[in-house]
Design goal:
This protein is elongated. It contains three helices and 14 strands. By secondary structure, the protein is mainly beta. It comes from Leminorella grimontii. This is MORN repeat variant. Keywords: Signal.
Length: 226
């Protein structure tokens, strides 16, 4: 089961002495006075490092690939949050849509943990080819996560509680058939999980109690069609 389904890991470093600017959106409603008073200009590159994209290789297994990315400052919102956006360094294509950070210290001095805690609202990420990769709602008591294969078909979808998978979670194969689904509590599998093959036939059922597998049922092809 994927334990890293929150889609995005950042390893960003503070950037100094860079004169390049990014083409950030100008139609976002910002607090203009606060943005003018900020230590960064809209479009200014404030951090660079690596962004990670997970690629499915076998149903529930995945591999990650890192890409050089940079972060640009967009502005300050009326709620006081900081709007930023990431881009792929080699192509200047967007790695994320603009999203909110609640803490000024996380705009350009970032660790993966602090960055995750500071994200508020929706964060949308993109593959290098421009197709949508993931969309999470973070920083709220109840949130959600969803990601897509590079062919555009859904890969996984579930709910978050305090930024951790909690509730019903569903995974799909690249051909669009459902792969497996069940409940998660704080990223741990609980209750009954069902598994299907790529033709849609039910394969197995697994029961998890106290975060451990307690029952395993292997279904024959005939059983799966009953």
């Amino acid at each position: 089961m994927l334990k890293n389904c929150l889609l995005i890991l950042f390893s960003l470093l503070a950037l100094s002495g860079c004169t390049k600017t990014a083409n950030v959106p100008t139609d976002i409603p910002l607090d203009q006075e606060a943005t003018k008073a900020a230590p960064w200009k809209p479009g200014e590159i404030v951090a660079q490092g690596n962004g990670f994209i997970y690629y499915d290789i076998a149903g529930s297994k995945s591999v990650s690939r890192s890409y050089p990315i940079y972060r640009a400052f967009v502005g300050i919102l009326p709620n006081g949050h900081y709007m930023v956006q990431e881009f792929y360094s080699d192509s200047d294509r967007k790695f994320t849509d603009p999203y909110e950070l609640s803490e000024s210290a996380d705009v350009n001095v970032i660790s993966p943990i602090r960055d995750s805690q500071s994200i508020k609202g929706t964060i949308t990420t993109w593959y290098p080819n421009g197709k949508k990769y993931g969309e999470d709602v973070r920083g709220e008591e109840r949130g959600s996560f969803q990601s897509w294969y590079i062919n555009g078909k859904p890969w996984m979808k579930g709910s978050l509680y305090k930024d951790l998978p909690y509730g019903h979670t569903t995974y799909w194969y690249p051909n669009g058939q459902k792969s497996h689904e069940g409940e998660q509590h704080y990223s741990e599998d609980v209750g009954e999980w069902k598994y299907w093959d790529m033709q849609g036939r039910e394969l197995t059922k697994r029961e998890f109690r106290h975060y451990q597998e307690t029952e395993y049922q292997l279904l024959s092809p005939d059983d799966s069609l009953k």
